[in-house]
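Task: complex structure prediction.
Instruction: return structure tokens for all chains below.
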Amino acid sequence: MGISRRVFVKSGGLALFSLGLDPLFLERAAFASYRPLPSTTALYRPVLVCLFQRGAVDGLNMVVPHGDPIYYRERPRIAVPEKDVVDLDGYFGLHPQLAALKPLWDNKSLAVVHAIGSPDSSRSHFDAQDYMESGTPGLKATPDGWLNRYCQHDREHEDTPFRAVAFGPQLPRILAGSAPSLAIDDLQAFGLRAPRQDGRDRLTRAFEELYAGSATGLLSASSAEAFEAVQLLKQVNPEQYQPGNGADYPRGRFGRAMMQIAQLIKANAGLQVAFTDVTGWDTHVNQGSSEGQLAARLAEFGHTLAAFAQDLGEKMRDVVVLTMSEFGRTVRENGNSGTDHGHATAMLVLGGPVNGGRVLGKWPGLDPAQRFEGRDVAVTTDFRDLFGEILARHLGATDLSAIFPAVTPDPARFPGAVRA
Amino acid sequence: MKDRVLRYLLGVSGAACVVGAQHAAPLHVARGAPSQFVARASAPAADAERALTSARTPRDSALHALNRLAYGPRPGDIDRVAALGVMKWIDRQLKPDKIDDGLLAARERRFTILDYDRGQLARLYVEVQRERRERKRDAGAAMDSTLREQRGRRMAGDFQELAVVRAALSERQLYEVMVDFWTNHFNVFFGKGADRFLMPDYVEHTIRPRALGKFEDLLIATAKSPAMMFYLDNWQSVAPGASPQSPLSASRRGGQGVRPPMPRGINENYARELLELHTLGVDGGYTQEDVINVARIFTGWSIEPPRQGGDFQFHDWAHDTGEKQVLGVTFPAGHGMDEGVRLLKMLANNPATMHHVSRKLCQRFVNDEPPDGCVDDAVAAWRRSRGDVREVLHAIFHGPDFWAPQNARAKVKTPLEFVVSALRAVRADPDTTPRLAQVVARLGEPLYLHVAPDGYPEREDAWVNSGALLDRMNAGVALAAGTLPGVTVSLDSLIPATGDAEQLILQVNDKILGGTMTDNTKQVIRRQTSDISDLLAARALAVGLAIGGPEFQRQ
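Output:
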């Protein structure tokens, strides 16, 4: 099991414990007070899934500006040939290994925000990831992450054990902070461990009695919540999960994480924000074009996203998937048929509430004079404007200044990724 | 139980406030009045000890001291400390040089990471980086890591494990606690570029030799440490417009390693964290102007390239030699590295620093929300001793707040404290594999891997959450069952297997929980073991429930 550091200051959630473990009740308690947003159903349960492409994905080969001759001039060995690009709007197109996402573009549930990134010029993976997760570019001492700050400030959504979950061995920076959040490596291993089910039940009961009778303060509240989560998960029954609609997730950690996120969403376990990350984007050497290193990563990425959408089916109407990466890569290929650390990149926004079928953001152009420091795609959309838009329009966040304190995202600058 | 509460309450009203080894006014006066009004008359130390700890039995006092100054008691420790006298034990812990630690020294020799100096680690790092580049060039990203790379990774794991082993086995417990404290106060992230090879040197040669010395010396040492200079980017901070005589080799890429793009000016990161976290504190009365001027003072504090060993290096050419003002003090033009040292000494002895760091120490040793009186005592000792950490700690341990009943068991153990105290409670023998460090990581505290410069927090809300609690329970059960990887446990010599449930509960309460087991826990263990005929299984369950249960999470 890999659960860690769920940092937590408990307030409204306590009431759940005394009322038993009826999942229907939990569903109601978790969402009844939520301000309904435009939706086809009365009970709108918005979910945000954030995916971090760690290592700085090459936005130019992920969403290719195939209409720009400079792109081909600067990348003689690694450009995606025009004939392979999955055209989107005549100017931009998807990498061929992302073809699985084309139907989502066509049904208007996939949008691309291009030339997006951080106002900070750091080309250090470490610093740039840190800033994108803290939501405060240039400020290292920010103790918490922006997803956690959202959870701290949105008190309308009552806390459930699975409100904010990161899939991975450690709680990432983006979810660190005082609001409840959970890191889960594997849903199947969540809870007390024993070789047999009766042993597990016995340990669970014993510890539940110990903590119910002797724990005080935060230990008491957190343990009660832990056992509630274990019970809830037992009903979800992760061992028996079959993806819906014949969805077939690629093997590997990323596919598994996305499948477990889908599982929690479908179980109505109260999941509101989920996070996971996927590595392998730091393509300094032999990046490849239509095939090769980056293509292989994109294939896994695209097929996983497509499987996730297929698995969720109708439920996707409540879900927004947001991809992010710390920065983009140089416009010009380097001497090793790769690309070096750059500035702006592209992010994908996927889901029912998405204003899809469009490449959003102001395209700065690839001419050297239009580039950042003469070498990188310039940032025309501050990532906080996109993140802020999704929090406000999808999750109903009312106070963005508390979540992004330095520069409050202004609706006038929202790229328009979510239907208003 | 009721009696004990009563005794505590009676004890408080009769207790005296003792600062250092001096007698002072009654507690309620000290609480309500600023500390300068507290009368200080001398009294023999024995009186002081009686007055301070009168609210507790000697065993209670010993348990409290072992929970806070140490990583919890080993079997027999409570009696030993109680017999010696808790204050005497504390004073011994304050002089770690006089405590024999031969067992740990022998164990440390098994950790080969300690055989490598920084230069050797730097060369290994450079080699691994080169191999990785070549590997990518030859075959894309999909190849297995090289032997050298695996060795590097293993050594990083060994180094984390070493922290767990030292905490568990050292007789110099307070010293190890302080090493952990300062490692967090002066946090460096092990995973950032060159810090992957600089970290061991930082802990061994910057933090450990100064953990119980003068704060000023430690502060200056961290400022001159390549690990800190790299972590907070100061190594690339140069006076605007300055450039070296022979230009650095042009950057091939702006990666994490020491392959700089040409430095373009001052970098404020270190300056800001120095003021906010290391010294004055966030409300310490400095301005953004001060941050910029501090950054100017530290321009040129840098490191040599890894292939040359990665040592600290001052670059004259990069230093801003203009005049600066910091906190209203003028640093005249024309100075070099000396003005940085002058600034560090000034900051180390600033009242805001005394208060900020003293408060953190009180948070560590007394309460997540430390009482003002305790902080005041620590600050007074700081001022008297010019920042002698030993004196500051002495003041805290001899103050009434440290012993106040409401502060006993008021803190929740951090993951490191939980794991190490569990190892100690069952006298477990850790091996040199990184597996126990991995348990600590799973509970939320991967050692040396806190990304942000504020270090791991001292507050319980950072650690207590449903997922981590379940993992603590699992770790407790596994340790008791002998299935926790990386450690050997033999309960036989500690708690004899017995069919007598009351005897079992008595033993577990005494040996594992230091007598703090609640009636509820006794009942649960009684009930849960009643139908288990296998005596070993019943014992393992009882011990596992005790370690994973609520009493053991507190200190």
